[in-house]
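Comment thread on ticket #2218

A.B. wrote:
> Attaching the input chain for the structure job we discussed in standup.
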Amino acid sequence: FEEFEEANKHAAEMNQRTARLIQQQIEGGVNQIRALIEAASADIDLKSLRPRQPEKLKALLHDYPTIMAFIISDANAKSVAAYSLSMDVPIGYDYSDRPQIIEARRTKRTAISGNLTGRATNITSVIAVVPLLDDSQEVYGFFSAALPPGKLGGTLKLSPDEFAVVTDSFGRLLVTDRGQTSLTEAQLADV
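C.D. wrote:
> Ran it. Output below, let me know if you need it in another format.
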């Protein structure tokens, strides 16, 4: 009986260690994307709401394939331009009701959504939004990046006995990795 308790204690410690490592990986990935889009937003001309050097945005999309698209929106959060190497992103959509836009407008800081379905693309995404501020610190527009949720944590390194399920704060599935267990992706989604 003591061996069973010891094995359970060891398994719990392994699970906690794995959870911390996954959390650190995801936080690191999110922080990297946050810094990247904040830096890229500095290239957006507030008068035209277009990049001063569009080739730089295209280079970023090429160098960071975890970014599916960049979207530029006006002060009313209506998309006016989009850049992607992998899909056509229609413009003219109103994003003013999206929580990440509301937060970015309210705080005048970068906001990141949970897992959601893209309004223009109908693709599951996590959206990072930088408010574009004028000289008087008023919101002049928004610069957004659409990210595939499953790639936020990079490649998880799990032992054969481990699996991972990561959800956002609303309980929506972000990442699953079944490691080398016999669990299917569908079974992980139900965990």
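A.B. wrote:
> Thanks. Noting for the ticket: The two ends are 28 Å apart (CA to CA).
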